[in-house]
Records
---
Amino acid sequence: MTSTPVETQPVRTDDLGRLLVMSWSREAPQGTVPYILVCPRGDGSNGPEAESAAAARLLAGAGIPPKHELVDATLMPSLPVSLLVLPGAAVLTLPQVTAQFVPPADWLEAVGAHGCAYLIFTTRPWPDAKPGDAGTLTAFASDEATLKSAAHVVLPARSLRN
């Protein structure tokens, strides 16, 4: 089988601006599901449109372009997106981006139970984000515009082994 290389433009950090990373868990029929939301803040010097385009290039370069289809990374070990879970912390890594965050205890328990987390990385900027406000998080994360402009990934959780 042959493949044609896909050229992607590099992501300029100025264009990407600041990224917001939020983690939470929610009850579902299969148990408590751990989620990670990543989105541009929309407060960069080049504006929200440039941040959205840069986020889309970042996701395309990682092999998870924004579209409303679920990517099961547990079946794709070569995908350059990873989640490392440590006691009391987690690290999300994509090409050109590493984000460390402190998830809540129930999120860590859910990741431990499922062995994975559901990543929603949207290209939709969220300039009026209020970290810690569950109501605004739920409204933004479940909004159709957010979901349609996002990569959706079931991401296996890895840990350090002794």
Note: The first strand starts at residue 19 and ends at 28.
---
Amino acid sequence: MSEQLAFEKRINGDYCLSGELDRDTVPPFWSRRAEWLPSDSHVVLDLSLVKRVDSAGMAMLLHLQQQLNVNQQTLILSNTPSQLKVLLQLSNVESLFTDDTSSVRGE
């Protein structure tokens, strides 16, 4: 069983996603996006507590990026897991994300 996704705003203003970002957790989490979707113009999303990512998780992040772009918001991924970086590269979509490269883990 996958560990449920959690989304929280930290004291420093960044957001943190934790749990497993996979085909089991993404659909219910995304259906509740009105509850957690940030309204900040500049969103830094820390992924250091994400334990597992699959293609469904990558797709959710792509949809999040698209939703924020429509709202004229910027998304920066921080502490990107190497598993996600590989998925993004294999899908040839890594250029769609702004990445805090000083915080990439697992490389």
Note: Confidence is low (pLDDT under 50) at residues 101-107.
---
Amino acid sequence: MSGSAGGMNNAQLIQQMALLRWLSSQSEEDRGLLAAVTGLQVGRELLNRITGQDKVDTYKRDCILSISEFVRQNPGASQADLNTEVQKRVVLFAARVRALEAAAP
């Protein structure tokens, strides 16, 4: 769940909306909603940290960006050169993910 650059992601926005609602009403119902939304966000973050999914997503994004950068910088590259470069970048991605798995408790 990502947001705009420098802004809140969706989960943060929902949490802030729940907080604002509770601050306005001070009702028990809105306090419960805020607690539930905050609990979900904390749980999601803990799961990402335990599983390393956030790092895998970052590695995937890095892989795609590096391939697109190669294509941009080498507009006349042959299909064979493109295939070789993509294969190199995917092998690097896979190695990074395997290293994450090996480091997991």
Note: The longest helix spans residues 79-103.
